[in-house]
Amino acid sequence: xxxxxxxxxxxxxxxxxxxxxxxxxxxxxxxxxxxxxxxxxxxxxxxxxxxxxxxxxxxxxxxxxxxxxxxxxxxxxxxxxxxxxxxxxxxxxxxxxxxxxxxxxxxxxxxxxxxxxxxxxxxxxxxxxxxxxxxxxxxxxxxxxxxxxxxxxxxxxxxxxxxxxxxxxxxxxxxxxxxxxxxxxxxxxxxxxxxxxxxxxxxxxxxxxxxxxxxxxxxxxxxxxxxxxxxxxxxxxxxxxxxxxxxxxxxxxxxxxxxxxxxxxxxxxxxxxxxxxxxxxxxxxxxxxxxxxxxxxxxxxxxxxxxxxxxxxxxxxxxxxxxxxxxxxxxxxxxxxxxxxxxxxxxxxxxxxxxxxxxxxxxxxxxxxxxxxxxxxxxxxxxxxxxxxxxxxxxxxxxxxxxxxxxxxxxxxxxxxxxxxxxxxxxxxxxxxxxxxxxxxxxxxxxxxxxxxxxxxxxxxxxxxxxxxxxxxxxxxxxxxx
Length: 482
Prior knowledge:
Keywords: Kinase, Membrane, Phosphoprotein, Transferase, Transmembrane, Transmembrane helix, Two-component regulatory system. Its EC number is 2.7.13.3. With 482 residues, the chain is of the alpha+beta class. It has three domains: 2-156, 2-Layer Sandwich (Beta-Lactamase); 240-301; 308-469, Heat Shock Protein 90. The protein contains nine helices and twelve strands. The chain has a five-stranded antiparallel beta sheet with strand order 2-1-5-4-3. A five-stranded mixed beta sheet has the order 7-9-10-12-11. Helix 2 packs antiparallel against helix 3 and helix 7 (351-367) packs antiparallel against helix 8. The longest helix has 69 residues, at 10-78. The radius of gyration is 47 Å and the shape is rod-shaped.
């Protein structure tokens, strides 16, 4: 799988493109060299044959047929390896001179006079079969003359050049593939370092930065630009959080005083109508204070990142405590409240934060489930994950809004008439992210008129090695890789 992912990288595809261009260039160059070399050697052979023909024609003009026979026999005698080929016959194929016995096949049909044939038994050749090239023409007096050359060495040389071209192309392609793989591997390593660091930053390690090698190459420049962008983002986030915290702190104090004054007024008011109005004002003040407190909690969670006080916690026991706290509230609405808690499900986390998360989920389930509804809380172990599920038969959340409910102050349209501030699931998501977990929203009854909502929180189960040790090991591995 790792090799397949390597082959899909853009760097390998770019190297493959360069390989194709380079191999095509090499092929064209070698083909041109072969064409020129083979053409030159063939032309040289033809020129040699033409020169011999010219010499024989001169002898024929000066000595007649007898002189031609004599010079052919002399040349055959001087060439024991039979590199030069001759055959002089009468018009009825009676041999007069030469080192061939018969005419090659197809010699009668040649229009240009040039033929290529094989030296073998068909032409009376006693040696091993070889390739030859010759020219045939008519001599005055009804004689036919063949003058040729053994081109077996030339053919072998052409084959040798063709083999060298094929091997050269194969080696070129192999080296190009190897070079592309090595270049892609080097590039992918550096990109993977950037990806791993980016993922860890997205998981809450905002203090991390992408490492550089000090080579000042394009990857170092990219890493430096990304690090500067991260510094700027963290600076702006800190500024926003600081302003938000100041606003929340500054407003919470006068709101608290206002709420206390209203409560004192409520005690002194005798008129029932006025008492109702003041009571509503106190309730609104309590709602505002709850909103500011939730905002401050979320801001603190996001600022703390993964620096929470992590300890080994029994998730089933923690959830049981939260269920005991909220079960009475469920009974007031005559809801069925069931628990299915697998014992011994351990996680590493901040107990207070986890309790807030579980309390928010159960409180939302009770709040948004009508009377006589059903609520079920489950805890179980799935592989390396500890799973918390809170199911209800309430109003549910439409599919197109499930990704938006984690935003601050976002409320589903059907729930706007109910009390709340739209921060509950934001707080749940923030706590889950601190513990490297995930929150998933599903319909309890997908095919029903009221699908309800099932919130699934998956957290890493405790396996005997703490998250801090794992993080330390990951940091050491990243440093070794860099």
